[in-house]
Design a protein that fits this description.
Largest interface: A-B, 44 and 76 residues
Distance between the termini of chain A: 47 Å
Number of strands of chain A: 1
Radius of gyration of chain B: 17 Å
Helix content of chain A: 40-55%
Strand content of chain A: under 5%
Shape of chain A: elongated
Oligomer: heterodimer
Chain lengths: 104, 229
Protein backbone atom coordinates (compact mmCIF):
# COMPACT_ATOMS: atom_id res chain seq x y z
CA UNK A 1 0.00 0.00 0.00
CA UNK A 2 1.11 3.52 -0.75
CA UNK A 3 2.15 5.11 2.54
CA UNK A 4 1.43 8.57 1.14
CA UNK A 5 -2.25 7.71 1.02
CA UNK A 6 -3.95 7.68 4.38
CA UNK A 7 -6.94 5.36 4.75
CA UNK A 8 -9.95 7.38 5.90
CA UNK A 9 -12.64 4.70 5.72
CA UNK A 10 -12.81 1.52 7.78
CA UNK A 11 -11.66 -1.77 6.34
CA UNK A 12 -15.16 -3.25 5.82
CA UNK A 13 -16.21 -0.16 3.92
CA UNK A 14 -13.08 -0.13 1.79
CA UNK A 15 -13.62 -3.81 0.95
CA UNK A 16 -17.23 -3.02 0.00
CA UNK A 17 -18.04 -6.26 1.79
CA UNK A 18 -21.82 -6.01 1.89
CA UNK A 19 -22.09 -5.44 -1.84
CA UNK A 20 -19.73 -8.34 -2.57
CA UNK A 21 -21.59 -10.65 -0.15
CA UNK A 22 -24.95 -9.90 -1.79
CA UNK A 23 -23.46 -10.60 -5.21
CA UNK A 24 -21.77 -13.76 -3.89
CA UNK A 25 -25.06 -15.13 -2.53
CA UNK A 26 -26.83 -14.49 -5.85
CA UNK A 27 -24.03 -15.89 -8.02
CA UNK A 28 -23.58 -19.10 -6.06
CA UNK A 29 -27.18 -19.52 -4.87
CA UNK A 30 -26.22 -19.36 -1.18
CA UNK A 31 -28.90 -19.23 1.48
CA UNK A 32 -28.52 -19.48 5.24
CA UNK A 33 -31.10 -21.00 7.58
CA UNK A 34 -30.98 -18.39 10.36
CA UNK A 35 -29.95 -14.79 10.78
CA UNK A 36 -27.25 -15.93 13.17
CA UNK A 37 -25.81 -18.23 10.50
CA UNK A 38 -26.06 -15.44 7.94
CA UNK A 39 -24.16 -13.05 10.18
CA UNK A 40 -21.51 -15.66 10.92
CA UNK A 41 -21.05 -16.39 7.21
CA UNK A 42 -20.80 -12.68 6.48
CA UNK A 43 -18.03 -12.40 9.07
CA UNK A 44 -16.21 -15.35 7.46
CA UNK A 45 -16.76 -13.79 4.04
CA UNK A 46 -15.19 -10.50 5.18
CA UNK A 47 -12.23 -12.37 6.57
CA UNK A 48 -11.85 -14.17 3.23
CA UNK A 49 -12.00 -10.87 1.36
CA UNK A 50 -9.02 -9.75 3.43
CA UNK A 51 -7.30 -13.08 2.72
CA UNK A 52 -7.93 -12.68 -1.00
CA UNK A 53 -6.39 -9.22 -0.84
CA UNK A 54 -3.38 -10.69 0.97
CA UNK A 55 -3.12 -13.54 -1.52
CA UNK A 56 -3.19 -11.03 -4.37
CA UNK A 57 -0.18 -9.31 -2.83
CA UNK A 58 1.72 -12.55 -2.20
CA UNK A 59 0.74 -14.06 -5.55
CA UNK A 60 0.69 -11.10 -7.93
CA UNK A 61 0.66 -13.01 -11.22
CA UNK A 62 -2.70 -14.62 -10.37
CA UNK A 63 -6.10 -13.06 -9.76
CA UNK A 64 -7.55 -13.70 -6.30
CA UNK A 65 -11.00 -12.70 -5.10
CA UNK A 66 -14.46 -13.99 -4.32
CA UNK A 67 -14.98 -17.67 -5.14
CA UNK A 68 -17.68 -20.19 -4.26
CA UNK A 69 -15.64 -21.00 -1.14
CA UNK A 70 -15.63 -17.45 0.20
CA UNK A 71 -18.05 -18.19 3.06
CA UNK A 72 -15.94 -21.06 4.42
CA UNK A 73 -13.22 -20.86 7.03
CA UNK A 74 -9.87 -22.38 5.96
CA UNK A 75 -10.62 -25.33 8.25
CA UNK A 76 -14.04 -25.96 6.70
CA UNK A 77 -12.51 -25.61 3.25
CA UNK A 78 -9.84 -28.17 4.10
CA UNK A 79 -12.30 -30.63 5.62
CA UNK A 80 -14.89 -30.43 2.84
CA UNK A 81 -12.90 -29.91 -0.35
CA UNK A 82 -9.37 -31.26 0.11
CA UNK A 83 -8.54 -34.74 1.35
CA UNK A 84 -4.98 -35.80 0.69
CA UNK A 85 -3.94 -38.04 3.55
CA UNK A 86 -0.22 -37.50 3.64
CA UNK A 87 2.52 -34.91 3.65
CA UNK A 88 3.78 -33.76 0.26
CA UNK A 89 6.89 -35.83 -0.37
CA UNK A 90 8.04 -38.46 -2.81
CA UNK A 91 6.96 -41.92 -1.62
CA UNK A 92 10.18 -43.81 -0.85
CA UNK A 93 8.90 -47.35 -1.30
CA UNK A 94 7.01 -46.87 -4.56
CA UNK A 95 8.30 -47.97 -7.93
CA UNK A 96 10.28 -45.13 -9.55
CA UNK A 97 9.53 -44.18 -13.13
CA UNK A 98 12.54 -44.70 -15.42
CA UNK A 99 14.45 -41.56 -16.38
CA UNK A 100 13.31 -40.38 -19.80
CA UNK A 101 15.44 -38.52 -22.35
CA UNK A 102 14.51 -34.84 -22.48
CA UNK A 103 16.74 -33.63 -25.33
CA UNK A 104 15.43 -33.58 -28.89
CA UNK B 1 10.18 -31.71 -25.20
CA UNK B 2 7.69 -29.39 -26.86
CA UNK B 3 7.54 -25.83 -25.50
CA UNK B 4 3.81 -26.07 -24.85
CA UNK B 5 1.83 -29.21 -24.33
CA UNK B 6 -1.80 -29.86 -23.41
CA UNK B 7 -3.50 -33.26 -23.29
CA UNK B 8 -6.90 -31.53 -23.56
CA UNK B 9 -6.11 -30.70 -27.20
CA UNK B 10 -5.47 -34.38 -27.90
CA UNK B 11 -8.74 -35.65 -26.44
CA UNK B 12 -7.24 -37.39 -23.41
CA UNK B 13 -9.06 -35.43 -20.73
CA UNK B 14 -12.72 -35.73 -19.71
CA UNK B 15 -14.80 -32.70 -18.70
CA UNK B 16 -14.24 -31.01 -15.36
CA UNK B 17 -15.97 -32.91 -12.55
CA UNK B 18 -17.21 -31.74 -9.16
CA UNK B 19 -16.38 -33.61 -5.97
CA UNK B 20 -18.93 -31.61 -3.94
CA UNK B 21 -18.50 -31.33 -0.17
CA UNK B 22 -16.52 -34.56 0.07
CA UNK B 23 -12.78 -35.02 0.59
CA UNK B 24 -12.49 -37.31 -2.42
CA UNK B 25 -10.02 -35.26 -4.48
CA UNK B 26 -7.64 -38.23 -4.46
CA UNK B 27 -10.15 -40.38 -6.36
CA UNK B 28 -10.63 -37.72 -9.07
CA UNK B 29 -6.89 -37.35 -9.46
CA UNK B 30 -6.47 -41.13 -9.80
CA UNK B 31 -9.34 -41.63 -12.27
CA UNK B 32 -8.13 -38.63 -14.30
CA UNK B 33 -4.69 -40.20 -14.71
CA UNK B 34 -6.19 -43.56 -15.61
CA UNK B 35 -8.65 -41.96 -18.08
CA UNK B 36 -5.62 -40.46 -19.86
CA UNK B 37 -3.60 -43.67 -19.78
CA UNK B 38 -6.60 -45.67 -21.01
CA UNK B 39 -7.02 -43.19 -23.86
CA UNK B 40 -3.37 -43.61 -24.82
CA UNK B 41 -3.65 -47.38 -24.70
CA UNK B 42 -6.98 -47.81 -26.50
CA UNK B 43 -7.81 -44.56 -28.27
CA UNK B 44 -11.07 -44.34 -26.30
CA UNK B 45 -11.80 -41.69 -23.71
CA UNK B 46 -13.94 -43.14 -20.95
CA UNK B 47 -15.15 -41.24 -17.92
CA UNK B 48 -14.33 -43.48 -14.96
CA UNK B 49 -16.07 -43.95 -11.62
CA UNK B 50 -14.73 -42.06 -8.62
CA UNK B 51 -17.59 -43.40 -6.52
CA UNK B 52 -16.23 -46.93 -6.88
CA UNK B 53 -13.02 -45.73 -5.24
CA UNK B 54 -14.90 -43.76 -2.59
CA UNK B 55 -17.04 -46.78 -1.66
CA UNK B 56 -14.70 -49.73 -2.19
CA UNK B 57 -11.07 -48.64 -1.79
CA UNK B 58 -9.60 -48.96 1.71
CA UNK B 59 -5.96 -49.52 0.72
CA UNK B 60 -3.37 -48.12 3.15
CA UNK B 61 -0.01 -46.52 2.43
CA UNK B 62 2.66 -48.90 3.77
CA UNK B 63 4.98 -45.94 4.43
CA UNK B 64 2.72 -43.84 6.59
CA UNK B 65 0.59 -45.08 9.42
CA UNK B 66 -3.09 -44.19 9.10
CA UNK B 67 -2.81 -43.03 5.49
CA UNK B 68 -5.64 -45.24 4.28
CA UNK B 69 -8.17 -44.45 1.59
CA UNK B 70 -11.38 -43.54 3.34
CA UNK B 71 -13.89 -42.12 0.85
CA UNK B 72 -14.93 -38.56 1.70
CA UNK B 73 -12.44 -38.54 4.58
CA UNK B 74 -9.50 -38.53 2.22
CA UNK B 75 -7.04 -40.85 0.57
CA UNK B 76 -4.03 -41.13 -1.71
CA UNK B 77 -3.71 -41.55 -5.45
CA UNK B 78 -1.06 -44.29 -5.20
CA UNK B 79 -3.29 -46.26 -2.82
CA UNK B 80 -6.07 -45.90 -5.39
CA UNK B 81 -3.85 -47.27 -8.17
CA UNK B 82 -2.95 -50.18 -5.90
CA UNK B 83 -6.65 -50.81 -5.25
CA UNK B 84 -7.41 -50.76 -8.98
CA UNK B 85 -4.55 -53.22 -9.60
CA UNK B 86 -5.89 -55.55 -6.89
CA UNK B 87 -9.58 -55.28 -7.77
CA UNK B 88 -9.08 -55.69 -11.50
CA UNK B 89 -10.26 -52.31 -12.71
CA UNK B 90 -12.75 -49.47 -12.64
CA UNK B 91 -16.28 -49.15 -13.96
CA UNK B 92 -17.61 -46.35 -16.13
CA UNK B 93 -18.86 -43.19 -14.44
CA UNK B 94 -22.38 -43.81 -15.79
CA UNK B 95 -22.45 -47.38 -14.42
CA UNK B 96 -21.32 -46.33 -10.94
CA UNK B 97 -22.22 -42.63 -10.70
CA UNK B 98 -20.81 -40.13 -8.25
CA UNK B 99 -22.96 -39.20 -5.25
CA UNK B 100 -20.49 -37.16 -3.18
CA UNK B 101 -21.20 -39.31 -0.11
CA UNK B 102 -19.67 -42.42 1.39
CA UNK B 103 -21.69 -45.46 0.42
CA UNK B 104 -21.72 -49.21 0.39
CA UNK B 105 -19.50 -50.85 -2.21
CA UNK B 106 -21.40 -52.31 -5.15
CA UNK B 107 -18.55 -52.87 -7.56
CA UNK B 108 -19.48 -55.14 -10.47
CA UNK B 109 -16.41 -56.85 -11.94
CA UNK B 110 -18.27 -57.67 -15.13
CA UNK B 111 -18.55 -53.94 -15.87
CA UNK B 112 -14.84 -53.08 -15.66
CA UNK B 113 -13.83 -50.74 -18.47
CA UNK B 114 -10.27 -49.71 -17.54
CA UNK B 115 -7.47 -51.44 -15.66
CA UNK B 116 -4.03 -50.55 -14.35
CA UNK B 117 -0.99 -52.49 -15.50
CA UNK B 118 1.59 -50.51 -13.56
CA UNK B 119 2.17 -47.23 -11.74
CA UNK B 120 5.26 -45.36 -10.59
CA UNK B 121 6.35 -42.15 -8.95
CA UNK B 122 8.20 -39.48 -10.91
CA UNK B 123 11.28 -37.74 -9.51
CA UNK B 124 11.24 -34.11 -8.39
CA UNK B 125 12.98 -32.99 -11.60
CA UNK B 126 10.62 -30.72 -13.59
CA UNK B 127 11.94 -31.89 -16.96
CA UNK B 128 11.29 -35.48 -15.96
CA UNK B 129 7.77 -34.54 -14.88
CA UNK B 130 7.22 -32.88 -18.27
CA UNK B 131 8.72 -35.88 -20.12
CA UNK B 132 6.52 -38.33 -18.24
CA UNK B 133 3.49 -36.14 -18.90
CA UNK B 134 4.17 -36.06 -22.64
CA UNK B 135 5.13 -39.74 -22.84
CA UNK B 136 2.64 -41.39 -20.48
CA UNK B 137 -0.37 -39.06 -20.28
CA UNK B 138 -1.83 -36.86 -17.53
CA UNK B 139 -0.18 -37.30 -14.12
CA UNK B 140 -1.72 -37.56 -10.66
CA UNK B 141 -0.14 -34.86 -8.51
CA UNK B 142 -0.51 -33.49 -5.02
CA UNK B 143 -0.43 -29.78 -4.30
CA UNK B 144 -0.77 -27.41 -1.39
CA UNK B 145 -4.12 -25.73 -2.00
CA UNK B 146 -3.93 -22.78 0.37
CA UNK B 147 -4.10 -20.25 -2.50
CA UNK B 148 -6.77 -22.17 -4.35
CA UNK B 149 -9.58 -21.06 -2.04
CA UNK B 150 -9.36 -17.52 -3.43
CA UNK B 151 -7.98 -18.28 -6.92
CA UNK B 152 -9.86 -16.86 -9.90
CA UNK B 153 -7.35 -17.00 -12.75
CA UNK B 154 -3.86 -16.32 -14.08
CA UNK B 155 -0.63 -18.09 -13.18
CA UNK B 156 -0.36 -18.69 -9.46
CA UNK B 157 3.17 -18.22 -8.25
CA UNK B 158 3.06 -17.43 -4.53
CA UNK B 159 6.24 -16.46 -2.69
CA UNK B 160 5.39 -18.83 0.15
CA UNK B 161 2.85 -21.61 0.62
CA UNK B 162 1.00 -22.86 3.68
CA UNK B 163 0.88 -26.17 5.47
CA UNK B 164 -1.78 -28.84 5.91
CA UNK B 165 -3.94 -27.92 2.92
CA UNK B 166 -2.94 -30.73 0.61
CA UNK B 167 -5.04 -31.67 -2.38
CA UNK B 168 -5.01 -34.27 -5.16
CA UNK B 169 -5.29 -32.95 -8.72
CA UNK B 170 -4.38 -33.86 -12.31
CA UNK B 171 -1.48 -32.42 -14.31
CA UNK B 172 -2.63 -32.22 -17.95
CA UNK B 173 -0.15 -29.90 -19.63
CA UNK B 174 2.24 -27.00 -19.46
CA UNK B 175 2.84 -23.68 -21.14
CA UNK B 176 6.07 -21.93 -22.04
CA UNK B 177 4.96 -18.67 -20.54
CA UNK B 178 2.16 -16.31 -19.80
CA UNK B 179 3.01 -12.66 -19.39
CA UNK B 180 2.90 -11.54 -15.77
CA UNK B 181 2.70 -7.71 -15.83
CA UNK B 182 3.87 -7.34 -12.24
CA UNK B 183 7.08 -9.28 -12.93
CA UNK B 184 7.52 -7.90 -16.46
CA UNK B 185 8.30 -11.33 -17.82
CA UNK B 186 6.77 -14.52 -19.06
CA UNK B 187 6.32 -17.31 -16.57
CA UNK B 188 6.21 -21.00 -17.55
CA UNK B 189 3.35 -22.85 -15.89
CA UNK B 190 1.72 -26.22 -15.31
CA UNK B 191 -1.92 -26.73 -16.29
CA UNK B 192 -3.84 -28.47 -13.54
CA UNK B 193 -7.30 -30.01 -13.80
CA UNK B 194 -9.21 -29.65 -10.55
CA UNK B 195 -12.40 -31.36 -9.36
CA UNK B 196 -14.37 -28.38 -8.02
CA UNK B 197 -16.61 -27.88 -11.06
CA UNK B 198 -16.28 -25.50 -13.99
CA UNK B 199 -17.37 -22.50 -11.93
CA UNK B 200 -14.06 -22.43 -10.08
CA UNK B 201 -10.74 -21.05 -11.42
CA UNK B 202 -10.24 -20.92 -15.18
CA UNK B 203 -13.23 -23.10 -16.18
CA UNK B 204 -12.21 -25.61 -13.52
CA UNK B 205 -8.47 -25.39 -14.20
CA UNK B 206 -5.57 -23.92 -12.25
CA UNK B 207 -2.29 -22.62 -13.61
CA UNK B 208 0.73 -22.73 -11.35
CA UNK B 209 4.32 -21.61 -11.89
CA UNK B 210 6.71 -24.20 -13.23
CA UNK B 211 9.70 -23.31 -11.09
CA UNK B 212 11.04 -24.22 -7.66
CA UNK B 213 8.43 -26.83 -6.74
CA UNK B 214 5.88 -24.09 -5.98
CA UNK B 215 3.34 -25.26 -3.38
CA UNK B 216 4.88 -28.75 -3.50
CA UNK B 217 3.54 -29.47 -6.99
CA UNK B 218 6.62 -31.55 -7.91
CA UNK B 219 6.69 -33.51 -4.63
CA UNK B 220 4.26 -36.33 -5.22
CA UNK B 221 3.78 -37.06 -8.92
CA UNK B 222 2.53 -40.43 -10.15
CA UNK B 223 2.21 -41.90 -13.59
CA UNK B 224 -0.01 -44.83 -14.42
CA UNK B 225 -0.15 -47.25 -17.34
CA UNK B 226 -3.42 -48.81 -18.44
CA UNK B 227 -3.77 -52.48 -19.23
CA UNK B 228 -5.12 -53.40 -22.65
CA UNK B 229 -7.61 -56.23 -22.47
Amino acid sequence: DDLLIRQVVDDDHSLNAEHHFTKFKTTFGKTYATEEEHNYRFAVFKSNLRRAKKHAKLDPSAVHGVTKFSDLTPREFRRQFLGLKRRLRLPADAHKAPILPTNN
Amino acid sequence: LPEDFDWRDKGAVTGVKDQGSCGSCWSFSATGALEGAHFLATGNLESLSEQQLVDCDNVCDPEEQGACDAGCNGGLMNNAFQYILQSGGVQREKDYPYTGRDGKCHFDKSKIVASVSNFSVVSLDEDQIAANLVHNGPLAVAINAVYMQTYIGGVSCPYICGKHQDHGVLLVGYGAGEYAPIRLKKKPFWIIKNSWGENWGENGYYKICRVRNICGVDSMVSTVAAAIS
